[in-house]
Design brief:
The protein contains 41 helices and 27 strands. The protein has about 1000 residues and is α/β, with parallel strands linked by helices. Strand 26, helix 40 (about 980-985) and strand 27 (about 995) form a beta-alpha-beta unit. Bound molecules: flavin-adenine dinucleotide and iron/sulfur cluster (SF4) (2 copies). Flavin-adenine dinucleotide binds near residues 84, 89, 149, 159 and 488.
Length: about 1000
């Protein structure tokens, strides 16, 4: 047999050749610039290795060509899906092939046979959404289902929460169509169906068979007999050691050898998967335990009831959920007293009775186990869903730990037989304590795979502790005859343990398997076989000597500039974390690359990734670009470079990530900080300056609206505007009005300041472009009996006549000093009202909510904090008053009976969307439906830019516009954001034109006519 020579690879010599040859040979994107390579240098592990380059193939032919060129140039190849691997599987000095953008088709479906064929880049949630109407699903339900690809799941032999019922990937992949590094293409499936006419394939299969026969005894001796074992190659295809057989009849399926091979054997072109009927009925029993030990002791008895999942939530997670207002009620419903741990035991069935009956069995069993009355029974689906969400969110909160100590994944998925689970947890907890750290336990008790990540500081003594803990944990795993990797695979962190787990003889057999498939050693080298040391610090993301550049930041980032105590979690005071960038670098470093910002289904994050599917335009891509720039890894002055500007360019500052990123990466705020430094280094384009200063020149434009509106009315002016200023000619710009709310012909009369209960903060956009919204607010608030005062600049203000402005347009351009000036005017004007006890109410979400967000990091002191606590959007105010029984608002039914609401992204980010629904529901007989969409794509001035026009339209067309167009003509379209309304009007021009209204206008219409 040919033995692979170690690949001698010189990135800088091979990279240039490779890039130019690839560019000529493929239709997809060839990315070799430093920033792109940097963005593909990490996954959800602790490692960072710069790839040679990146290919985003358009088709399989691109991959064929790339592998051929790499073979010739002896450059390794590294397949990548979402890059959410935790062990460093997807980092390496190789050509990275990212399948997610184009290779995402479902290519075959057989309803009768319950099979589907997919390309590797299909994301699990997308597949399941597609299957749902057929009453089917692919049941390997990994937690990263929103971003994980089927190619990556197969690569890692992934496992879901319900693996006890459905098995892992290896139990659900029926065939793999693969490309080998020597150009061979073959379908790997049942042995009897393998193409023996192909000499290369016949030799390969023959060689594999021989290894299997030869090693049978060793396999039986060394391969752990647990369901959850994903380390090494599945050499037991010939005599499966898993608790669940790989095939029903015990026959060999060579696809199963590729599953879990982490891209080291072949490149997957297509997968044939086994489907399952969607369970029609579910019940959930939440068992409350006095101790974690007791919970773990009982797990093995619970699996006897054949549940579909038994998931652990420990005390720390219970407390975290209780501390979160969004989850408190849900978790409280699941608790009986003060349990130390709960187990979520799920039952599924085809009939309604079956899972209910098994839930009763659970109650009975717990009585027999000495814990009567310990089960909370949940039979209604919404309650069950809500509790599963809490389980997921608990992990997210844990991941958001500030400081350099982070929960590190390296023994997070050891699997031990259930009878030893309690002892294992107990002993490992003591190991953590001995090393001055702690871990939170959660997840798959049903299969003995409990997730736990000790908190380690990888910049300091983390590597030493990691090895010490791994050694102690592995000794226990061996003692209990468990698997060192029960879920996440080998990658860089665990390949060195393969020999330990399987013994030297099987480790050599693995090398033989690798060499049979990939004699040149091209495919993802250094993983599973011939691995590096887990604590090789030269491969760490935060290597010894990692430093960030000093930065005088515009915003106050000191809340991130802290350290945490690994044992207690206590944080040091703000500003003490030792970050020379004042905490900004530490905020950026919060991104742990889990890839959740690649999701498509729900929420807002991340619209620019959804529209482009480019890593560069995901929150993660941006955070990585900023981190690399701040740490000098992209060269000198990279922070203010074009590479950073380009990565941030399509960020629409929707703040979706602020709320939805598990670790709280707030890219909108980071973008402002980065733009601040960029404009100081390179200045601003005239167009950006013009938009930024709009609040300053608006009073003049409003005096001569016909002149200011010529751009919209004069033939040819739009084209000229695009050529000179970059405003898209395909857009109409907001029209200037003479009847502004403050100062113009329509100037409002209001209550005097001293007596007002409500102070209306009228933003620049409402004042100049849609004053009727402010008038509607006055009318509604007055109808509710409120004395309303309109906020104005204080006496002594340098520009007393100019309306107040939150400074949003300045922030969008990075002109933070100007924005601070505006903010100071606002704080000065509104603070006296706040001190009097009045509520500040606003209309435009992005403006009002900046009082609760950016104002707090501008160094404006206690007054800004107090203001933030009293600033509400008008619907939030109405709902607050209604709930307190203080609202008496006479409203009559409208002729329209339905309203479709598109909440502004900032409303969603600040939990201010639900109040819109609640406020509109005050109108009798009005049925209110919320649009499920990300950003509208207009995002302030973003969509007016000619360079952004197409992506802006694409964002709107992804979800918002189809729902608006589908709405009955009689349905009211409601959107509180000025730019959202403009986008809807602009993109429904023509026969189906729809006009969206601010919610306050709908309420105004419902006021009884006097
Ligand atoms: C917060 C968090 C939670 C997680 N929860 C789970 C969980 O519940 N269960 C679980 O099993 N895992 C979990 N994981 C790990 C990871 O998300 C899964 O393994 C996931 O299936 C990986 O999918 P991916 O698309 O990100 O693959 P990637 O990480 O991109 O790739 C995974 C492996 O597959 C290989 N690969 C990708 N495409 C191909 C191809 N076309 N041909 C050949 N090889 C290929 C890659 O080289 C790599 O070795 C979790 C990770 C995180 C960060
Ligand atoms: S930005 Fe947030 S969601 Fe995206 S990868 Fe980083 S941590 Fe995950
Ligand atoms: S602010 Fe919005 S567009 Fe920008 S990174 Fe976050 S989610 Fe994406």
């Amino acid at each position: 047999m040919a033995v692979a020579k170690p690949l001698v690879f010189h990135p800088h010599r091979s990279g240039g050749d490779l890039a130019s040859r690839l560019s000529r040979a493929v239709a997809g994107d060839v990315l070799f610039d430093a920033a792109s390579r940097g963005r593909y240098a990490t996954d959800a592990s602790i490692y960072q290795v710069e790839p040679v380059g990146v290919l985003v193939p358009k088709c399989v032919d691109d991959v064929r060509a790339a592998i051929a060129i790499c073979r010739e140039l002896r450059v390794p190849v590294l397949a990548r899906g979402a890059g959410s691997s935790q062990c460093g599987q997807t980092v390496g000095a190789a050509l990275v092939i990212d399948t997610t953008k184009h290779l995402d088709r479902i290519t075959g479906f057989d309803r009768e046979a319950l099979t589907v064929r997919v390309e590797p880049g299909v994301v699990l949630d997308q597949l399941n959404a597609w299957l749902k109407p057929h009453g089917l699903w692919f049941p390997v339900d990994v937690s990263t289902s929103a971003q994980a690809t089927l190619g990556g799941m197969a690569g890692n032999n992934s496992c879901g929460s319900r693996s006890i019922a459905y098995g892992n990937m290896v139990h659900n992949v029926l065939a793999v169509d693969a490309l080998l590094s020597d150009g061979t293409e073959a379908r790997f499936g049942p042995e009897r169906e393998m193409d023996r006419g192909n000499a290369r394939l016949a030799a390969l299969v023959g060689g594999l068979g021989a290894i299997g026969d030869r090693e049978q005894d060793e396999i039986e001796r060394q391969v752990p007999k647990v369901l959850r074992r994903v380390g090494g190659y599945n050499i037991d295809v010939c005599c499966a050691q898993s608790e669940r057989p790989y095939t029903a009849d015990g026959s060999v399926n060579y696809a199963h050898l590729l599953v879990g091979s982490e891209g080291t054997l072949a490149w997957t072109r297509e997968l044939t998967l086994r489907l399952a009927p969607l369970p029609s009925h579910r019940t959930l029993g939440v068992v409350n335990f006095p101790t974690l030990y007791r919970a773990m002791e009982c797990a093995r008895h619970l699996v006897g009831l054949r549940p579909s999942a038994v998931e652990l939530v420990d005390r720390t997670m219970i407390d975290l959920a209780r501390g979160n207002p969004a989850f408190r009620a849900v978790i409280e419903r699941a608790l009986i007293g003060e349990p130390d741990a709960i187990l979520l035991v799920e039952f599924i069935g085809e009939t309604e009775d079956e899972p209910v009956r098994r839930l009763r069995d659970l109650v009975h069993l717990m009585g027999e186990l000495g814990l009567p009355g310990s089960v909370v029974e949940m039979t209604d689906a919404p309650a069950q869903r809500a509790l599963w969400e809490v389980r997921k969110a608990g992990l997210n909160i844990m991941m958001s730990l500030k400081g350099d100590g982070k929960p590190v994944s390296f023994i997070e998925d050891c699997a031990v037989p259930l009878e030893h689970l309690a002892d294992y947890v107990d002993r490992l907890t003591q190991v953590f304590a001995r090393h001055g750290t702690r871990g939170t336990w959660y997840a798959h008790a049903s299969v003995g795979t409990l997730h736990v990540r000790p908190i380690l500081d990888m910049r300091r003594d983390g590597a030493v502790k990691m090895r010490a803990i791994a050694e102690e944990a592995s000794a226990m795993v061996r003692e209990y005859k468990g698997a060192f990797s029960g879920e996440h695979g080998d990658g860089l962190v665990r390949s060195e343990w393969v020999g330990w787990q399987f013994g030297p003889r099987l480790a050599r057999a693995f090398e033989e398997i690798k060499d049979l498939f990939d004699p040149a050693g091209l495919m993802n080298p250094g993983k599973i076989v011939r691995g590096t040391k887990m604590d090789d610090a030269s491969l760490f993301r935060f290597r010894p000597g990692y430093r960030t550049q000093p930065l005088a930041t515009a915003f106050d980032w000191s809340a991130w500039n802290v350290q945490s105590d690994a044992a207690t979690g206590a944080l040091t005071p703000p500003g003490t974390g030792g970050d020379p960038a004042g905490g900004f670098a530490k905020a950026v470093e919060m991104c742990n690359n889990n890839g959740h910002c690649r999701k498509f289904d729900a929420g807002t994050m991340c619209p620019s990734y959804r529209a482009t599917r480019d890593e560069q335009h995901s929150t993660r891509g941006r955070a990585n670009t900023l981190r690399l720039a701040l740490s000098g890894e992209l060269g000198a002055d990279a922070f203010t470079s074009d590479a950073v500007r380009e990565a941030l360019d399509l960020c629409v500052s929707c703040k979706g990530c602020r709320r939805e990123c598990p670790t709280g990466v707030d890219m909108a705020k980071m973008k402002i900080e980065a733009l601040y430094h960029r404009q100081r280094a390179h200045g601003l384009r005239f167009r950006d300056r013009l938009i930024a200063h709009l609040p300053r020149w608006a009073p003049w434009a409003a005096r001569l609206p016909w002149l200011a509106n010529l751009r919209n009315t004069l033939p040819g002016a739009a084209r000229l505007g695009e050529a000179l200023l970059g405003f898209s000619a395909q857009r109409s710009l907001p029209a200037w009005r003479r009847d502004t709310f403050q100062g113009g012909a329509g100037a409002a009369r209001d209550a005097d300041a001293a007596n007002a209960d409500v102070v209306l903060f009228v933003d620049t956009f409402t004042n100049y472009f849609e004053p009727e919204n402010a008038r509607a607010a006055m009318a509604v608030l007055r109808a509710a009996g409120r004395r309303v005062h309109v906020a104005r600049a204080v006496e002594g203000d340098a520009e007393p006549a100019r309306p107040l402005c939150c400074g949003r347009t300045f922030l969008a351009a990075g002109l933070v000093d100007e924005a601070k000036h505006e903010a100071r005017r606002v704080v000065a004007a509104l603070s006296p009202h706040v001190e009097r006890g009045a509520t500040i109410v606003g209309l435009e979400p992005s403006c009002l909510l900046s009082l609760r967000d950016e104002f707090l990091v501008m160094g404006l002191g206690e007054a800004a904090q107090r203001l933030a606590e009293h600033a509400l959007l008008v619907e939030e105010y109405l709902v607050r008053e209604q709930r307190a029984g203080r609202l008496d608002l006479p409203l009559a039914a409208l002729s329209q009976k339905r309203a479709l609401v598109h909440p502004h992204c900032h409303q969603k980010a600040f939990d201010a969307a639900a109040p819109v629904r609640e406020a509109l529901s005050l109108v009798p007989d009005l049925e209110v439906e919320m649009v499920e969409a990300s950003c509208c794509g207009m995002a302030g001035s973003f969509g007016y830019d000619a360079a952004h026009h197409d992506v802006s339209v694409k964002m709107a067309e992804l979800a918002l516009l189809p729902q608006v167009r589908a709405a009955h003509p009689d349905t009211l379209i409601v959107a509180d954001g000025t730019s959202c309304r403009h986008q809807i009007a602009d993109l429904t021009r023509g026969s189906g034109r729809r006009e969206a209204l601010h919610a306050i206008r709908v309420l105004e219409r419902a006021l009884p006519k006097s």
